[in-house]
Amino acid sequence: MKFPGSVLVSLALFLSETTAALCLSAAYRAAGDPMWHWLTLVCALLPCVLVQLSLVFIHRDVTRDRPLVLLLHLLQLGPLVRCVEAFYIYYHAGRIEDPYVSITKKWQVPKDGYSEEIEKEVGQAECKLRTHRSAFSRASVIQAFLGSAPQLTLQLYICIMQQEITAARSIFMLLSLLSIVYGALRCNILAIKIKYDDYDVRVKPPAYICIFLWRSFEIATRVTVLVLFSSVLRIWIFPVVMANFFGFYFFPWILFWRSRSPFPENIEKEFSRVGTTIVLCLLTFLYAGINMFCWSAVQVEISDPDLISKSQNWYQMTMYYTLRFMENAFLLLMWYLYKTDIYMYVCTPLLFLRLLLSYCLAIFFMLVFYQFCHPCKKLFSSSITETLLSCFKFLFFMRKTPKSAVLRDEAAVKTPENTGEAPSSSKTIDSQKRNLHQSASSNA
């Protein structure tokens, strides 16, 4: 049975960040900054409530008549209780024989073109432990993008406005950044396991390192760009944030309405139509919050029974990173043009180039991960580099190639040589043309 290390890491980040947020909020109150005090407190308590609700929902505590556990969740002690329960199951799993054992079948990731089906016995204890891992993974994602990401943005903005970075604030920002990166990493692992549920997926250490570097550069750059832009154009940051958030929020709903699929009813048996709608709204809310700061890796598809798209859409990823790079460059340009006196002792051109380079490094590590370190790269129908090259070729030929050349290329594609027909078919066409020419000459 696998050691529940992810549960321990999630709990450590949750407790350390919440404690640091409460201490920093009290420091703001003692220093006479009520606005920073209340904003820090709200950004700390709101994700705590959402984490408790997610743990209760995944473990279905409402229908299991567990009043003590529900009370501990109300006291914001749910993650601690769940972690103790997970380690209790882990250390007592082999001592008592499990009477309920199920057999799962998974396929190995193909090696040298060969794949083998593996049968594995899964006991009741391992199923419970797997539920705990899944619950903490989802709780880490919620904590990261609905709590840590706004908190990091707020604290960095305070540092710039006050032109001071204290030790407590720097430690808190480092914890928040680690929490966001870890949540993005868990989101990547969840996406892999959902899309390749039929395979025995094992993520190796190089893959974790690539994901960590990719997400670190991407999230740090995105937060810094938003804070710099908001420090000089405070009013215009609200349209930018609202356009990003509502664009990603309504995107799954627009796809659902266009597909004309029936409303999903199998999310939870006890849920009514109103309850299902609330769950879907919360899911798309989280999806929009993730995409505000980084690529979500999990694409919400409401028409699918699992609510997650299992197809690998390289073009959508390429479009996301292209538009995000252009947006970051535009926001940095506006900051550079309208910068105030607080940046008097900062080399703004160098900072501008460093941030763009950091985002390029994030894209580089993302390409390395999908090209070399992805655990299921042998199952891809096409690699991401091929998709990028095809996109760039398409854009290049659309801009450079004249209309006549495009028509000539289309005609060349339709010839039998390019469509893969046999040489005998081309000979038949030539013979038919020769016969027609001879008959025309004889008639003349």
TrEMBL record:
Biased composition range(s): Polar residues: 416-429
Keywords from the named record: Membrane, Signal, Transmembrane, Transmembrane helix
One CC-aspect GO term: plasma membrane
Region span, Disordered: 412-444
Positions of transmembrane segments: 35-58, 167-185, 235-256, 277-298, 318-338, 350-372
Main location: membrane
Compartments (UniProt record): Membrane
Membrane topology category: Multi-pass membrane protein
One Pfam family matching this protein: XK-related
Keyword check for Secreted: no
Signal peptide stretch: 1-20
Entries under PANTHER family matching the protein: ENDOPLASMIC RETICULUM MEMBRANE ADAPTER PROTEIN XK, MEMBRANE TRANSPORT PROTEIN XK FAMILY MEMBER
Family label: Belongs to the XK family.
Protein name as it appears in the record: XK-related protein
